[in-house]
Amino acid sequence: MMRNGEQCAFADVIVALAAFWFATFFAINLASGASERTLNNVDPDFITIGAGGFDVNDNEISGQFEIQGRLNTRLWIFKPQVGMFFTTAAGFYAYLGIMVDVFFGGRFVVSPSFAAGVNHEGEGKELGGSLEFRSAIELAYRFEDRSRLGIQVGHLSNASIYEENPGTEFAILNYSIPTRVFSR
Q1: What letters, b where the CB count within 10 A reaches 16 and e where it falls short, cover 27-63?
Q2: Global pTM?
């Protein structure tokens, strides 16, 4: 069993590896024209609902239920997202961030994202402070009506801005529903 410091170091290594692979993936796809395909593949705004596990890297996993607004307003290739989730351990997290959709053919979409938000741990895992950062990646299948079904995995931590930074991982099954709720 890992001690708290070892868990923190392990989570930091995972985050560093994820950042490296994301940067490599992004550079390769940029060089191959994927960003042009992403910019030309216009999807609507989405409301995304999801359910899965929170703190899946520990022995006290709790359920996680999430809702997101994914807007198609773009700044270069980045799209804003806003969301919140709660856990079965009375935890709550609300966040605002950015995401990128990278399309592979007409059906598969990989969506890395990053957000900052406010955390209330409830009876769940203590994450060291209220300000927490969320990094995630989703692999989704896009249906004919543009709705999506995807698996998302991610990491939540305070990036060592507090004395303790245990961090945690989550895994969610998401369904994204096209919407005009956010239309201007």
Answers
A1: eebeeeebbeebeeeebbbbbbebebbbbebeeebbe
A2: 0.76
